[in-house]
TrEMBL record:
Organism: Roseibium sediminicola
Biased composition (Polar residues): 28-38
UniProt similarity note: Belongs to the rhizobiaceae omp19 lipoprotein family.
Name used for this protein in its record: Protease inhibitor Inh/omp19 family protein
Domain Alkaline proteinase inhibitor/ Outer membrane lipoprotein Omp19: 76-166
Gene Ontology molecular functions: peptidase inhibitor activity
Length: 166
């Protein structure tokens, strides 16, 4: 039995350095991690900032809604499901809408957005023929209306135009 064990160990590639043996990689040098105190974050600091106008104050879209264009079409919940292209203030990214209920409406998220207003989108809802996009706290981020076939246009809380299209 001892001979069989020695033969098995001798035949193992790990110990024999056979043709398929790979040498271990050398350790990679790393830079040291700095430590220090961070200032507290303001959760609303990024919201409402327009990169083209940093001093702009966010619009209160809840009390001052964007007026509907005359040609705004009726919209149903299922019309908004799935993936969308999202464009606002020079930022082009993706938005995804589901019918999973969530605080203030239904779940939504974005991918590939650089604009903090767009990255904060967490929910969507319908108010008549208006599509309302909200952040994680339930604040209205944008209001849109159906314009052309399969496209929604409106305004963000910073006053920037926003479009949702396929």
């Amino acid at each position: 039995m001892a001979v069989a064990l020695v033969a098995a160990v001798a035949g193992c590639q790990r110990f024999s350095r056979g043709p398929n043996y790979a040498e271990p990689l050398p350790a990679t040098p790393t830079t040291p991690v700095n430590s220090g105190n961070l200032s507290p974050l303001d959760p609303n600091a990024a919201l409402g900032t327009d990169p083209n106008n940093p001093g702009a104050q966010p619009a209160d879209l809840a009390s001052n809604p964007v007026s509907a264009p005359a040609d705004a079409k009726e919209v149903g919940r299922t019309d908004l499901l799935g993936g969308w292209n999202l464009s606002s203030a020079g930022d082009n990214c993706k938005a995804f809408m589901t019918l999973t209920t969530w605080s203030g409406g239904y779940r939504a998220n974005t991918r590939g957005c650089a604009n903090p207003v767009l990255t904060g989108i967490a929910a969507w809802d319908l108010s008549g023929n208006q599509v309302v996009l909200k952040d994680g706290t339930g604040l209205i981020v944008a209001q849109l209306y159906s314009s052309a076939a399969g496209q929604f246009n409106g305004q963000t809380s910073t006053g920037a135009p926003i479009s949702l299209y396929r």
